Amino acid sequence: MEPLQIARQFVDTDGWPQMKEYLCCEAQQQAKNQTLGQQIPHNLQRSCELLQQGDSTAVVAVELRDSVSRNDFYLHFAKEADAWKLQAIRSLAMTQLGPPMLKLLTAMPETEIAQYNQKHPDADHAFTVGNLRLWIGSDADVINHFTSHQAGFQKVVRLVQTRQYFTATDSIAGEQAANTDPEVKNLLRKLYIGRITQHETNCDSCIEFIIGGRVDNTVGLLYQPKPAEVPAMDPDRLIVVRPITKGWYLYKTTRGNL
């Protein structure tokens, strides 16, 4: 069976007697008796999309949704003795604080919002709410946000390249200069982006727009116009690199398991 076929069986609502034949590594411990599809509510709609398949690895994105929510998982596969096996199941971790923070902020009356803005001039109420919604949102939410504001993202790239912030020998100083540039900073705030960097995906030729996250679990947008230089997905670090449009990708990192 091919990775996409295995993924569809694994998230289906029915049982799968042959499941253990297609599992390896930590996935064997995560799905001892039931598939992922059996462990989640039956009313959730589920769809699978093959993101990458090479000679020895593959990644399938799984979206689970109902009328009020959408969640994304990433199934990482490895080839063993000419047979594809599900190796690991990943999703963005450590997002539990997001929903209560968002609920608290959106319930604030105007007087409290004004006070909040005075105390947080660099990340006011509107920015924080927009940023939180993206951080805990679905892949579809992030992609829609990018599509609606693509001109702004492209302008940031042009400014960073023109002003050569990431071509200096001292990359840390260049990154700091880019993020404190008034024009760049103003655009990033409008786009609900925390900062730009080149250190999240170990891609020195990429520009990473970090939305947010905690510790090593981050979500953002990646700019790299050369497909050959786009970093490879890895279940232990770069859990997804999802194409959006030419040169642009959604990415997520993690250090923890589900």
Compact overview of the structure:
The chain is an alpha+beta fold and 258 residues long. The chain contains ten helices and nine strands.
Helix-strand layout with pairing:
Layout: H1 3-11, H2 27-30, H3 36-39, E1 45-53, E2 57-65, E3 70-80, E4 83-90, H4 98-106, H5 110-119, H6 125-135, H7 139-148, H8 150-162, H9 171-180, H10 182-190, E5 195-197, E6 207-214, E7 217-223, E8 238-245, E9 248-253
Antiparallel strand pairs: 1-2, 2-3, 3-4, 5-6, 6-7, 7-9, 8-9
Q: Could you characterize the architecture of this molecule?
A:
With 258 residues, the chain is α+β, with helices and mostly antiparallel strands. The protein has 2 domains: 3-90, Nuclear Transport Factor 2, Chain: A (Roll), CATH 3.10.450; 98-253, no CATH class. It has helices at 3-11, 27-30, 36-39, 98-106, 110-119, 125-135, 139-148, 150-162, 171-180, 182-190; strands at 45-53, 57-65, 70-80, 83-90, 195-197, 207-214, 217-223, 238-245, 248-253. Strand 6 (207-214) and strand 7 (217-223) form a beta hairpin. Helix 8 packs antiparallel against helix 10. It is globular, with a radius of gyration of 20 Å.
